[in-house]
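SEVERITY: medium
COMPONENT: batch folding queue
REPORTER: lab tech (J.R.)

DESCRIPTION
The queue accepted two submissions in a row. Attaching both inputs and their returned structure tokens so the on-call engineer can compare them side by side.

ATTACHMENT 1
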Amino acid sequence: MVLPLCRCRVLYIGSSVPTITKDGLQGIQQPLRERYPVEDTPETRGIDSWLSVWSNGILLEYIEGDKKSETAFFPINTLHYCAAVRYVNVTGYAVEGGGERFLPLDSPFANIPDSPHPPIFAAIMRRTTGVKVLECHGFICTNNKAANALVRCCFHAYADSIYLKMDEKVPGLKAIKEGSTGERSPASPQSEENNSVEGDDHVDRAPKMT
């Protein structure tokens, strides 16, 4: 049975098209401000969902509301950037830029005790239909472990897709691969072993796909 690299319960807060062209962490600041309430006691609204990372893309499964039976799939080659962040008000601290920002979970400022703000998995992906602009999607996670797992699995899936493209473009690499023992990497999502990331009740396995 083929399993995802990881599957996490999330609250999907929607997407926003960046109006300011910036790369990396700066590129998600403006879109997340539009989608996430930044008050001290935020009342977050979103769609209860499952988010899973597969070797070929990211699958969003709605489990409540009008879209309960709908899914959305984002091919891994449309991924532009992703990060696990938390909203932090760093006003008064000696932080470049200052003010209110979404900072990486490994930042000391993002680990302030008793913060009312949950971890967020943010992913910038390019639309595959219509005007193919970059679009930032926000997913509130139940804990840091889930948000970090999503980032880590997206990285591995994207890296694997690049290696596959290299195999197609460089005949020598394909020949070397065909001449190998054919043993599958333990980290491969096609392995018969269960290698899904599962840390707690909120990082789950995916059902069998037919």
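ATTACHMENT 2
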Amino acid sequence: MDTLLIIVHVVVCLFLIGVVLLQHGKGADIGAAFGGSSQSLFGT
């Protein structure tokens, strides 16, 4: 069970790192989709 949780955690971390890297690269539209909603949420 612990091994499964570690594997899921690592996969999620790699996915989040990939999303952040895409925001600065070719996937700027994806970054705008995630980042734009947070800006409107906090009112900045």
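NOTES FROM REPORTER
Helices lie at 2-24, 28-42.
No errors were logged for either attachment.
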